[in-house]
Design a protein that fits this description.
The structure is a homodimer. The first copy, chain A, is an alpha+beta fold and about 400 residues long. The first copy, chain A, contains 12 helices and 20 strands.
Chain lengths: ~400, ~400
Amino acid sequence: MRQSQLFTKTRKLAPADEVSKNAQLLVRAGFVHKEAAGIYSFLPLGLRVLNNIVRIIREEMNTIGGQELSMSALQNAELWKKTDRWEQDVWFKTELKAAGETGFGWTHEEPITHIASQYVSSYRDLPFAAYQIQTKFRNEERAKSGVMRGREFLMKDLYSFHADQADLDAFYEKATQAYRNVFSRVGLGERTFITFASGGAFSKYSHEFQTLCSAGEDTIYISREKNIAINKEVLTDEVLADLGIERTSLEEAPAVEVGNIFKLGTRFSEPLGLSYTDAEGKKHPVVMGCYGIGPSRLVGALVETLADEKGLVWPEAVAPFKYHLVSLGHDGDDVSKAADTLYDDLTKADVEVLYDDRDLRAGEKFAESDLLGIPKRIVVGKESVATGEFEVVDRATGKVEKKSRVEVLAQ
Amino acid sequence: MRQSQLFTKTRKLAPADEVSKNAQLLVRAGFVHKEAAGIYSFLPLGLRVLNNIVRIIREEMNTIGGQELSMSALQNAELWKKTDRWEQDVWFKTELKAAGETGFGWTHEEPITHIASQYVSSYRDLPFAAYQIQTKFRNEERAKSGVMRGREFLMKDLYSFHADQADLDAFYEKATQAYRNVFSRVGLGERTFITFASGGAFSKYSHEFQTLCSAGEDTIYISREKNIAINKEVLTDEVLADLGIERTSLEEAPAVEVGNIFKLGTRFSEPLGLSYTDAEGKKHPVVMGCYGIGPSRLVGALVETLADEKGLVWPEAVAPFKYHLVSLGHDGDDVSKAADTLYDDLTKADVEVLYDDRDLRAGEKFAESDLLGIPKRIVVGKESVATGEFEVVDRATGKVEKKSRVEVLAQ
């Protein structure tokens, strides 16, 4: 896309009331717009990043057999009364005309369990897994972490349904691996640890995926040897004994929870009547698991962990464009023409490129380019016209290479 | 996908309180789940249809230069007070903790105008167009039209921004053509008419796209000769004179509004301070247009207009799968093996196919297949094993053809 057409622009200042690094940079670069505290709109560049993350998550969910659906935001209060979660403080509640109280989904275990109950009756209907990638709403008391903790946010939740605990346990391992794949593919694999956290009535622990991040709200203790971590909330001698870890070997670090997987057991299936009949005709409640990742939170975590003093830095897999093509030409000169030609070639080759075709000073263009954080910058200057070579600058490392048109297109 | 894995199933009965044909059929076929009146979740098959419609709309919006963004559902009340729309009856309102009243967006002119005001200052920043494809919320009094009029629904809204009326007028024509393309591609082109409806302060008429539909809430008068229609609400002698149409030539018909395009002029840019400076340094309000299509309403309109007594009928462009492969085999017999092989071949060729691999009676499978409405059914029976040919049944016409494996794969 030509940058002269992009309706957003970078700006020098972030909103005065914005305290988080991620939102400051994302607003300055024109990736998001702040509507109110904890409420952000995703502008074209930001939406491209978000969609890239969503695509990766969707692929991993499909690989483990997840079936995508989309549930309503407006909730049937009756279901939530059955599980004793209607009175929780986190709701945005409102009134349906001529139909009474409702609220906006902050999580969806109740409706998915109810939907499953419409289709499951026999052991032959199990197991299966269904997932949603949708906006959820939480009436947060504080909202100071930018897109890492919004009052509305995009969430992927996978739910699995099983005849027994052993089948849940096996699927839980598959989901764990899918989560590792997601974090690795979006560029957070090395700084993300599976972390033991508090369980429920049905399992001793749940597992979080925590990404090392100075702006994170959690504290974790990392065992480098075992490549796992323990949330401070559950760090007891009993847990250490369970995991065979010495307290002295642990490393304390701030982190942000980027995923959470949980064995729900029959917490929701029992009150909501989701049961099946086994081969002997005996009725049992369905055993469930749930698995969440917040794509909009991942955008924030990527900014918090990878951005530098010059601006955003995107890994290629999630970047809004692969290349930032920067022309140093003016008014249709040879440099502009060479840049136009390279842009056309890249576009024809289906390479995602943002083309800075504006007539601005080089310094201004480079500073903006650094702020946007596109992985590779291709500079077209006078030298390019003379030699046929382009300067290709790696945003993360600053490394500069000279490449020919053919080399650029071959990447 | 193997139908034995699909967690939804067809059912004999629709919810007792469901009066609309579209929701009755969609629920029976397992495409949607009714959460409450006017509130539906889209299950895997329904979501596939919805996503196909969204993909077509997105392509057409990108073709006319639309830049996609995603705005928050939660609204900043201050913006809506400036345009005198905060007191409207349609809102779902709620309270933000420690931040006062908010509501959920039922349309997004106010926030998009405010966002644009952050980036537009000069005539050089115009024109541009931005669009969103997101859930909107309306507190409807009655909700008896299934997914054609939901209390929450998916909506595509495009907004365009111009320096003057002439530029808006030119873009409006482009948007009109994009809309025609959308309705034609989703399979409603022949029964959809551009329809003159009431304008605002800035244009004499707005234009709706109305699809002929006995369940539609509108009444339109069609001029077959001019290939346009007039909404009953504006059918006056003056309008007829404007359009050069004789009243006696008109044909009355019920219809559903599937799209709406509107010249907003400065209705929103003036109160919200969206202005630009021209080349002479003079300040003007930006001239705007907006262009809406409801993808979830289109799902309903497709069902209302195309379904028959046996069930759903999907045009190929939006169908959840292209083929419904129905095996009449049992327990790994030769018929099952032949069906398995054809399924593998189709999957490898990236053909979207739902494979009914379940061990059920042929009559039951065919009735279910008719209800699901996938465009072509491929039947694998004993004869297929003997002759190497498969029966291919067209869902819409009932026409039966015999095709070889090569012919099926070549389609």
